[in-house]
Amino acid sequence: MSMLTPPGMGGKYRITGDKYPRMRRSRRRGRLVLGVVASVAALSLVGWGTLQLIDVFTGGGDQASAAGSRTNCTTKAGASPSPSAAPLPRPGQITVNVLNATARGGLAKKTADELKKRGFKIGDVGNATATYDKKVKGTGILLGPSTALKTSLPVLGTQLVSAETRTDTRKGTEVDLIIGNGFKSLNSKAAADKALTALSAPAPAATGAKKSCG
After folding, report:
1. For the residues 75-94, what does the mean pLDDT come to?
2. What is the pTM of this model?
3. Disulfide-capable partner of 93 in 89, 105, 122, 132 (CB 3.0 to 4.6 Å)?
4. At 122, which helix (H) or strand (E)?
C-alpha cells in the first residue's frame, strides 16, 4: 500500500499526481434560486400590468389628471345670486282700506270702487285719521305692517304714482291707501298692469363661477 493511500481505503484507490478532487455545490440549488427570482419578477410584471388595465377601464388615469388639474385651477366667483324673494301676493289677496286725507268729498269711495274693479279687496272706506287728515301733500301714503313692506305694499304701489310707503305696528295684513292733496287719479289700468308684470318678473340669473387654470 502506498504511503499516499488514505487509511481505510485498502489499497483500492490510489492518488497520483498533485491534484485532488474538489467539492462542488449542487447545480440544482442554483437553478432553484434562479427559478424563484424569475417567478417573483414575472408575478410583479403581471400585477403591474393588471393595475394598468384596471386604470384604463375604470378611468383611473382620467381621475388622476382631473385631480391634478384641480390643484392648478383657481375659481373666480361671479355675481352672487340674490336670495330668492317670496312670491308676491295677487291683488285679490290684498285688503285695502281707502282713506281720504283731502278736503274733496267722495274721493275715497271713487278710488275704492276702481281698486275693486282691478281685483283688490276693499276694507274700510272713509276719511283719514287726525294724524294724516289735511297733512299729506303728495299723491298719497301706502301704510301697512312691516311684513307688507316687500309684499302687499309694492303691489298696491303699482296703482299710484309717487306714493310714499310707510310701516306701522298694526297686527294683521290689511294695508291703507291714504289719499293726499296731490292725488288726481290712479294710474291707468294698462300702466298699472305693466308695472305689476315688471314687479313680478323673476330677477336675472346670476353669473356663474369662472375657473382659471394655469
Report:
1. 69
2. 0.58
3. 89
4. strand 121-127
